[in-house]
Amino acid sequence: MTSGIWSVGSVVEQVSKLVGPTNVPTTISGTDMNSIVEQEINFVELFTSDIIVSSAIPEKYQPAIIDLTQSKILLAIDSNTGGIDNIKLGDLSVKSNNSSSDAELAKQLRVDAITRLKELSRTTRFKRVIGC
Q1: How far from the centroid of its chain's Cα atoms is residue 91's Cα?
Q2: Taking the mean position of all CA atoms in its chain, how far away is CA 109?
Q3: Is the pLDDT of residue 56 over 70?
Q4: What is the DSSP letter of 6?
Q5: Do residues 99 and 117 touch, judged by C-beta distance below 8 A?
Q6: pLDDT computed for residue 73 by the predictor
Q7: Is the pLDDT score of 33 beyond 80?
Q8: Residues 73, 33: contact at Cβ < 8 Å?
Q9: Is 25 helix (H, G, I), strand (E, B) or coil?
């Protein structure tokens, strides 16, 4: 799914492919989608305490940033148009015009992304206990 160093534009392109370019209203395409990706990169930076340059997104963060961005885009589409006709996530295609299923998918994508981030930021800590 991901390979190499990506930029904000690469994330926008991937999210557009997954959500479906015809499903993304013009009100949230282009610059607005770039802003959403930047917001999600900032979220990942705060979550992981790592610095991520938007023109050089490391591979390990790409899946989480994609899921977070998709989640935000699906919620924006839902609030702007009342739902999506067809959602494609990889090989899975869901035909729906039901805003509750769109919102549920957006919620699940966000949960999955946060789970991935927790796995990335998991560190091993050792404590030394001195007993009597």
Answers
A1: 18
A2: 7
A3: yes
A4: B
A5: no
A6: 87
A7: yes
A8: yes
A9: coil
**Unique residue bearing structure tokens 């800590």:** 125
Give strand pairing partners of 53.
56
Task: Tell me if residue 53 falls in helix, strand or coil.
Answer: strand
């904000």: which residue's tokens?
8
Amino acid present at 105: L
Residue 23 structure tokens: 């499903």
Round to whole Å and give the CA distance between 58 and 39. Answer: 16
Burial class (CB in 10 A: 0-12, 13-18, 19+), 2: middle
Q: How many CB atoms lie within 10 A of CB 29?
A: 14
- Identify whether the C-beta of residue 102 lies closer than 8 Å to the C-beta of residue 74: yes
Find, among 71, 101, 69, 68, the residue nearest to 83 by Cα. Answer: 101
Residue 124 φ/ψ, nearest 5 degrees:
-95, 130
Tokens 């013009």 belong to residue: 26
Give the Cα separation of 108 and 94 in Å (integer). 15
* Structural contact between residues 19 and 77, judged by C-beta atoms closer than 8 angstroms: yes
pTM of the model: 0.72
